[in-house]
Amino acid sequence: MAYWLVKSEPSVWSWDQQVAKGAKGEAWTGVRNFTARQNLVNMKKGDKAFFYHSNEGKEIVGIAEVIKEAYPDPTDKTEKFVCVDIKADKPLKTPVTMAAIKAEKKLADMALVKYSRLSVQPVTAEEWKLVCKMGGV
């Protein structure tokens, strides 16, 4: 299993909306960056992803699971981009803020810190464990 981080502005798509989709999940559409696209292509069914509220909140609020691997993004007229389906797995007991992540020296190399504009990012196993611990799960 691999670990990832997906970003969404809560005013566009929030953790609560993801939870409301239940077991059928929702397509993670709208990615228009080629690095992020490649990360979506690399996701496998069963992989886990942190759900990060960007711009508004700037915090990891939950854990999602990939339930369908990459397929053509129906919102992309150019037919160059893909999406995956994810479902909410569980919320973090305590959201982990960007400030808390930046304050943790062991997370200094985390993609979230280094590539703040990348909407779909890999997370190492060590980073995953530490953020989960910080979030109380």
TrEMBL record:
Gene3D superfamilies: ph1033 like domains (3.10.590.10). InterPro entries: 5hmC_binding, EVE_domain, PUA-like_sf, THYN1-like_EVE. SUPFAM superfamilies: PUA domain-like. Residues 2-134 form the EVE domain. This is Ubiquinol-cytochrome C reductase. It comes from Bradyrhizobium manausense.
